[in-house]
Design a protein that fits this description.
The chain is mostly beta strands. Helix content is 4%, strand content 44%.
């Protein structure tokens, strides 16, 4: 091969490489023309600055070519011309053609095409952010409307066209669409050439970059991503397998394995173990590790507890944070499906309380019948897994002290009057009466079930569990010889009630009637329950009964009969004629 002389190489340099060296002009004395860029991608706008361009007459008379390919003219002034770099152009000279005789040489333009260096990540979920790095992507994606005459630069991910969120010449960021599949990632630059007569526009075409493969994996939803020990966490996804097949298959929180309660192809259920610490939640499956989320292990904290002292049957309220939820110890994805409370409980003086409400920031419990003065402690149950995530190397609880509670015993000091007529008020004074429970909700936890049973008769003040209707449906009451009075006010030191009607008229049932119940004991009662030995709810209602003394309902305040009652029995008796 013949060697090219240094002089020849020097003369060829501007033609081959377009480095901005002076280009010989087509006409002697031509004013130099400056290009806005010496390299460009197809579809980009190229600006020519110079003099003597004249006025624009027509697309046939005024033309600009790039390596002989006509470019679409967007602007033509006497000193500035703007054109679109044509799709079919190759690196070459830019020429300005004015009529058939005048040709101005603008310089050498190098055509560059997009190139992807790398994508991050190379494996990811739909909906995650994909970053593409490389060069010659252009300064922007162009117009927002995909139907614009010049087209819109875009990215194709697994066969799906995506409009990125951020676009720079060397970096593109986009969100992987939910309908994308595993496949190639390519960058496409839109361009439109003029029609043969120089007018706009030929159909949009795309310059396509090199292809880089992307593998998409099913997304996994983690619910929740924080909680105290014992919290049930569910992974919703696909492709987990029908069962935990390998010993190495596991879920880790902060590098420590958890106890797997259920493992199916579309769901994994586990509980936060006793020794858990905040950290990445990692799924290990078939030898691969995948970080799903950052899991925060909370420590329960009590902010307040009230009241600090009260009798049985009182609703004790504990406010705080990170208590978790009550019935989340089961293996199903949803707490209400199995309602498994595990060892979650509240104890008052070492006696389990009856749970009324357990939320993440508040726990309400009924003070049980057997409660004692002492510490109020919240217990959350959890465990430590065996090898392979099986249950359980250890079972235990996390204890959180809420405060000290003093059990109060009600005392009656006086009551007056000791005899009164119907609807008269009676005042009972003392201490430790507690609060009045205004509703019968939860008065008997099986009352809703008993309501469907046949009522064989009316039973008065039964002392134990009955198969028929329950007469005592409240847990704070005042009884006149076994009949409940209407409570007008109830404070910790004073109770005001109305004398009831029922006993004065008598009471009874089929084959049995008590016609004289006017005199009998005046009783104040508070009721509550205890949990059963297995921790379930509940024992029959139990009572603290305080007898104030004897009381007589006097024959006063009886309603006066209507003398015309028997004269107006016809349905239309009071109807106008």
């Amino acid at each position: 091969m013949k060697q090219i002389s240094l002089l020849t190489a020097f003369l060829l340099w501007p033609v081959c490489f377009g480095d901005g060296a002076n280009i010989p002009t087509a006409q002697a004395g031509q004013t130099p023309i400056e290009l806005s860029s010496r390299s460009s991608i197809p579809g980009a706008t190229l600006v020519l600055n110079g003099k003597g361009f004249g006025t624009f007459k027509s697309t046939q008379f005024n033309r600009v070519t790039v390596s002989g390919v006509s470019a679409l003219v967007q602007r033509w002034d006497t000193d500035v011309i703007e054109v679109k770099v044509p799709f079919k152009a190759m690196s070459g000279f830019v020429e300005v053609l004015i009529g058939k005789k005048k040709k101005l040489l603008a310089g050498f333009l190098t055509i560059v095409t997009p190139w992807i260096e790398a994508i991050t990540p190379t494996e990811g979920e739909r909906g995650t952010t994909l970053q593409i790095t490389g060069h010659h992507f252009g300064l922007s994606a162009g117009a927002r409307d995909p139907n614009t005459m010049f087209g819109v630069n875009d990215v194709v991910v697994g066969g799906v066209v995506v409009r990125p969120k951020r676009w720079k010449d060397d970096k593109i960021e986009l969100e992987i669409p939910p309908n994308a599949v595993s496949g190639d990632v390519v960058v496409r630059l839109a361009s439109s050439d003029p029609l043969p007569d120089g007018s706009c526009c030929a159909p949009v075409e795309h310059v396509v970059s090199n292809a880089v493969p992307l593998k998409l994996i099913p997304s996994v939803r983690v619910d929740p991503t924080s909680g105290p020990v014992g919290t049930k966490v569910v992974l919703f996804g696909q492709g987990f397998g029908q069962a935990k097949e390998l010993v190495d298959d596991a879920v880790l929180i902060g590098g420590r394995p958890v106890t797997i309660a259920q493992w199916k192809d579309d769901v994994i259920v586990f509980h936060v173990p006793l020794n858990a610490e905040s950290g990445p939640l990692v799924l290990k499956h078939q030898g691969r590790e995948r970080v799903l989320a950052q899991f925060t292990v909370h420590v329960p904290r009590v902010i307040s507890m009230s009241p600090a002292g009260a009798p049985i049957g009182t609703l004790l309220r504990i406010n705080g944070e990170h208590f978790g939820f009550y019935s989340e110890s089961g293996a199903t994805p949803y707490n209400f499906t199995d309602f498994n409370t595990g060892g979650n409980r509240v104890e008052i003086g070492g006696v389990p309380a009856v749970i009324y409400r357990w939320n993440d920031d508040r726990i309400d419990v009924w003070v049980p019948f057997s409660a004692k003065t002492g510490k109020v402690v919240i217990y959350r149950s959890a465990d430590t897994p065996n090898i392979g995530g099986l249950c359980c190397a250890e079972r235990g609880t996390q204890a959180t002290e809420a405060g000290d509670f003093t059990l109060v015993t009600p005392v009656i000091e006086s009551y007056e009057p000791q005899a009164a007529g119907l609807d008269d008020t009676v005042t009972i004074k003392g201490r430790g009466f507690g609060t009045f429970l205004k509703t019968a909700e939860h008065a008997d936890l099986g009352l809703n079930q008993k309501s469907y049973k046949r009522r064989g008769g009316l039973e008065i003040n039964e002392s134990g569990e009955q198969a028929t209707v329950v007469s005592n449906v409240s847990r704070t009451e005042v009884l006149f010889n076994g009949t409940a009075a209407v409570v007008q006010s109830w404070t910790d030191e004073e109770i005001v009630v109305q004398v009831p009607h029922r006993n004065l008229y008598g009471i009874g049932r089929k084959g049995e009637f008590f016609d004289n119940l006017a005199t009998g004991p005046l009783v104040v009662r508070r009721g509550s329950w205890d949990l059963l030995p297995d921790g379930t709810c509940c024992s029959p209602k139990k009572w603290i009964t305080l007898e104030a003394g004897p009381f007589t309902i006097e024959a006063k305040g009886l309603p006066v009969p209507d003398p015309d009652f028997w004269n107006h029995q016809a349905p239309d008796a009071s109807t106008a004629p």
